[in-house]
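[Q] Does anyone have a clean structure-token version of this?
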Amino acid sequence: MAQKRASKGKTTTKSRRTQKKRTKKGKVYIAPYKIIILCAAIIAICMGLLVVSTAINQRAWDKQQTFLAEQKKQEDLKKEEARKAEENRKAEEKAKADKARAEKEKSEQIAAARKQTELVAKKKAEEKKNIQAKTEKNAQKAVKKESEKTSKPVTPPKKEEEPVRTPNTETKLPSQTPSAQSNVPSTADKTPSQTQLPSTAPATASKFNFPQAKNGAQLVILLDDGGQNLIHLQKFLDLPFPVTIAVLPQLAYSKESAAKVRSSGKELMLHQPMQAINTGVNPGPGAITPQMDERQIKAMLYQNISEIGPIAGFNNHEGSLITADAEKMETVLKYASENGIYFLDSRTNVNTTVPAVASALGLSYYERNGRFLDNVKTRDNVVAEIRKNLDIANRDGVVIMIGHIWSADFLPAALMEVYPELLEKGYKFKTVSECRGLKR
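[A] Here you go.
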């Protein structure tokens, strides 16, 4: 019994020790693959959180950048608007200043033109008055002599105050006192004052009743045939407004005329001679003729321009035959383009090939679209032709009209006479190269 208890006690103690020992060895046991899976899950979760956080932060960043970009855009727009407003303000101020300066220059030109016109009229009036005075003096001398021949001596003393006079000579006798002459003026004394006052009055500037300028009308006056006479040329160089002068080559005064035109500030052209349809008409030295080939035409142009130049351009003198020749005009237009100068077609032939050739080559040119000023050599004709040219200028915006240096005896004076009123009416005087008449 005792043995059983003892064995039982031993068995119980042993089992407890075994249980205790087992308990100590099997506290926590996790397989390695589970640890790996767990770590992977944790990493995945962390990565997911990182991605989500990054996405949220990126969205916030993008939103912030969009806001900043929009804000910068608004600022740029405001700056651009402010810049444009400043530019517009400056442009308006400049336009106002230019307008004021242009009006001032125009008024000064008008005043100068009026003054010059008045001086010319005054000079003419003085010349006429001097002539009239000389005529009157001669008449008085003649009357005095006639009176001395026809008068008879009167003996009675009481009639000495009443000398015998010839008919209609009483007011012209030199025996009269100054007071008597002032009280009884002769017809000759009245004439100068009555005829000269209207011509010297400023109202003469508006006597032509020219139409008001439209479309910014420009007037271009081209004066051909320079080089023949320096005295005639000077009258046109003295004009107070822009003109273009074309000088013929290889004449006695060609080179000197060209130099005077350049020094005056007027625009200089070569007036290139070309053969006319009427082969009996000699266009002059340095001409382009039908027999010339391309090389000869270029050589002739080079020679003439070397003599006259530097020039702004050239136009044809005569040339009704050459301007109708497309091959010749192709050479001429190409030469002008290659040398940086313009060609102006004087339109001496209605069948000119210049427009067609220029269009085919893609080149530009000018052409006379106005009427000649001096085909009839009178002042009244000049005024009439100018009036017709004004209609063209108001229609097309520009008119290129041609006169000639050999019209110096009447053309400069006529131009000076109409100049003040043309300025007042708003017409602008331009040279060929300054005008808007370029054909493309």
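[Q] Thanks! Anything notable?
[A] The two ends are 144 Å apart (CA to CA).
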